[in-house]
Amino acid sequence: MGKNHEGCERGFYRTARAWYGKHVVRRQPEITFGMYHKDGGTTGEMSVVWEEIADRMVPRLMVFDDAWDALASFTDLIQRLGEADDKKITEEEFAAILAECGFKDLTPYKEGR
């Protein structure tokens, strides 16, 4: 791996469920996850966004190239997603998979957190 993720923790944010979610322009459910420094910042972050296709909400993974190293370190998560292939998992199901893989829910559900 190229980047140093030392001192970071696996985490995720449920944007629409955060206290500020009602102010977010994006209408689709979204979970952003990656490697986060405890004092802020990230060494790699990506998102799963649910998009409506043929009247169904379908998850799509979005990763910029500066987060590919972090993605490559998530072999357990990739394995779990492979087991859910074409099952059109929900936001709740994806959050549960993240938690099972040791990702911490960092969502600020209340203002000031």
Tell me about this structure.
The protein is an alpha+beta fold and 113 residues long. The protein has one domain (22-105). The chain has 3 helices and 5 strands; from the N terminus they run ββββαααβ. It has helices spanning 68-72, 75-83, 91-100; strands spanning 8-14, 30-37, 42-53, 56-63, 104-105. A 5-stranded mixed beta sheet has the order 4-3-2-1-5. β2 (30-37) and β3 form a beta hairpin. The protein is globular, with a radius of gyration of 14 Å. The model has no long low-confidence stretch (mean pLDDT 90).
Key structural traits:
5-stranded mixed β-sheet; globular; single chain; alpha+beta; 113 residues; 3 helices
Helix content: 10-25%
Overall outline: globular
Strand content: 25-35%
- Strand ordering within the main sheet: 4-3-2-1-5
Mean pLDDT: 90
Intertermini distance: 32 Å
Oligomer: single chain
Task: Quickly count the domains.
Answer: 1
Put the structure in a nutshell.
This protein is 21% helix and 33% strand. By secondary structure, the protein is α+β, with helices and mostly antiparallel strands.
SSE blueprint and pairings:
Blueprint (H helix, E strand, L loop, with lengths): L7 E7 L15 E8 L4 E12 L2 E8 L4 H5 L2 H9 L7 H10 L3 E2 L8
Parallel strand pairs: 1-5
Antiparallel strand pairs: 1-2, 2-3, 3-4
